[in-house]
């Protein structure tokens, strides 16, 4: 799947019953995980961490769904192992990772080697950024951005438009080139 592509309305048998993807997704965002096989050690820790952070995903109107090539009964056994290994899992949970917007478009894809676990805080930060920039279509989030910190005003927005959009102000960053293209605000 590529960025901007529509995710097909696939059917799947899950540990929670059969789903039709678009119907299951509803108006939510989705984090779709793939893992190479059940009973893999790194994925066991990842899925456990995702489960622990489930309330954070719920705050962002985001559902999690993991998939692999293994049989459903194998998934059920593995879920029990994950719950046993990650004792702080509050309830239910879900090698490529996709974030899918409510319009079924792929908005982010991340590919990890099997030896490297995913950073759940980065997944949540990315969802926050995508939701913010969907809502305020005139900003982008800079490197290492976290909710509540400065955002970048897009170069397509004039200073006059920026003054109307951000009446509490914004900062212009003077660059050695003399080109004024970096403007930031915390007032969004």
From TrEMBL:
It comes from the Eukaryota. It comes from Drosophila rhopaloa (Fruit fly). Residues 1-132 form the Thioredoxin domain. This is Peroxiredoxin-6-like. InterPro entries: AhpC/TSA (IPR000866), Peroxiredoxin_AhpC-typ (IPR024706), Peroxiredoxin_C (IPR019479), PRX_1cys (IPR045020), Thioredoxin-like_sf (IPR036249), Thioredoxin_domain (IPR013766). GO terms for biological process: cell redox homeostasis. GO terms for cellular component: cytosol; mitochondrion. Gene3D superfamilies: Antioxidant, Horf6, Chain A, domain2, Glutaredoxin. One of its GO terms (molecular function) is peroxiredoxin activity. The keyword Oxidoreductase applies. Keywords: Antioxidant, Oxidoreductase, Peroxidase, Redox-active center. Coiled coil: none annotated. It holds the Pfam family 1-cysPrx_C. SUPFAM superfamilies: Thioredoxin-like (SSF52833). The active site is at 43 (cysteine sulfenic acid (-soh) intermediate). Belongs to the peroxiredoxin family. Prx6 subfamily. PANTHER family: DI01187P-RELATED, MCG48959-RELATED. Thiol-specific peroxidase that catalyzes the reduction of hydrogen peroxide and organic hydroperoxides to water and alcohols, respectively.
